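$ ./design --mode recover --in tokens.txt
reading tokens...
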């Protein structure tokens, strides 16, 4: 049926559709829906406290016995640099003045923590079938503990070098994340995003370079993208932005509206929201502060000072300071429940693959 069954067999799933882990947008409800539909539901943990992770994982394990995927960030924790913080504060001052906020205003916010021993304890306890990382891999002793649970270990590569690096360190599969992708770029061997390849160029080159199966990510929004991914040598797809329109996505109405109205020419890579390059829909903050700023504090510290501006603006109905993470193919999204979207994507892709296979 599918031209390549390697990911289906490796992960024990029925459909080669992985709902991307999307920090702050995806919680247990979507993970359960996608896994129950036969795809792979993915829980992003980067913005969850340990208590939240535990409660989400308990809820998921209670509601499905299908394989699940849990995802973490594994960046080097940042150095606080007082000069950069001050410079960034100065860049934002005029917006604080405009919105009537005191410079020392704080809003409660989770920040992106890097994978550590305590998170690893939870992985060992809940033993998800697939564990993935963004920004490389954590230290070897943590990877070893995960491997001992029997979980398959996966990470994102944005270049062939990164894919080889991950394979050399024992990854069971590689996510080839093309330039079109929404959210943070998984880039970790370089900081130069100007030379990054799109999904069409990256996937076949990664597939040629590594022996483990490849998962295509970035700009895949409907069945045509799924079929193309297989033609390029992938064994599955990881889809993010298209799942944001599902009712299970926990996103605010301003964000949902922006996604529904976005076009192919409205996203850009920006570092102003967190300190690392990520793809988002253009808004006032990106236009006026970025898209790439030299003044931002290290990832993820940049997010702290923007928090109060975002809260105040959102309360007034404005997404001027909201990170509207999105890939280039938001326009292809459909507002289906996550289970239906997963099944539809697979059924439509199979429908398109059949005549191609007959011709071949
Ligand atoms: C809102 C959003 C949040 C994301 N958060 C994460 C995350 O927490 N962990 C991760 O590995 N990737 C994250 N990504 C990247 C996805 O894993 C994936 O590479 C991307 O969504 C694929 O491109 P697409 O959005 O065009 O489908 C995020 C993407 C989006 C759109």
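writing sequence...
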């Amino acid at each position: 049926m599918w031209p390549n069954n390697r990911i289906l067999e490796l992960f024990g799933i029925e459909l080669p559709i992985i709902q991307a882990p999307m920090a702050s947008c995806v919680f247990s409800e979507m993970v359960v829906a996608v896994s129950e539909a036969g795809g792979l539901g993915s829980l992003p943990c980067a913005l969850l406290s340990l208590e939240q992770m535990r409660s989400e994982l308990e809820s998921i394990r209670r509601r499905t016995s299908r394989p699940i995927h849990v995802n973490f960030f594994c960046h080097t924790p940042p150095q606080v640099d007082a000069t950069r913080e001050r410079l960034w504060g100065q860049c934002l001052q005029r917006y604080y003045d405009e919105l009537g906020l005191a410079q020392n205003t704080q809003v409660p916010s989770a920040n992106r923590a890097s994978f550590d021993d305590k998170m690893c304890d939870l992985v060992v306890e809940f033993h998800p079938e697939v564990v993935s990382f963004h920004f490389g891999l954590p230290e070897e002793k943590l990877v070893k503990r995960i491997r001992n649970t029997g979980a398959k270990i996966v990470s994102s590569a944005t270049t062939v070098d990164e894919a080889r690096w991950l394979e050399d360190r024992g990854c069971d599969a590689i996510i080839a994340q093309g330039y079109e992708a929404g959210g943070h770029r998984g880039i970790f061997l370089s900081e130069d995003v100007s030379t990054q390849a799109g999904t069409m160029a990256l996937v076949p080159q990664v597939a040629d370079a590594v022996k483990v199966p490849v998962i295509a990510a970035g700009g895949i929004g409907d069945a045509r993208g799924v079929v193309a991914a297989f033609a390029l040598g992938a064994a599955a797809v990881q889809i993010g932005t298209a799942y944001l329109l599902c009712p299970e996505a926990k996103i605010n109405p301003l964000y949902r509206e922006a996604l529904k109205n976005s076009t192919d020419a409205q996203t850009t890579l920006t570092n102003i929201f967190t300190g690392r390059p990520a793809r988002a829909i253009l808004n006032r903050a990106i236009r006026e502060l970025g898209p790439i700023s030299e003044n931002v504090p290290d990832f993820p510290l940049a997010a702290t000072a923007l928090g109060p501006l975002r809260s105040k603006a959102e309360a007034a109905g404005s997404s001027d300071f909201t990170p509207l993470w999105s890939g280039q193919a938001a326009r292809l999204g459909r507002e289906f429940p996550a289970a239906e979207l997963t099944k539809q994507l697979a059924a439509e892709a199979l429908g398109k693959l059949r005549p191609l296979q007959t011709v071949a």
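exit 0
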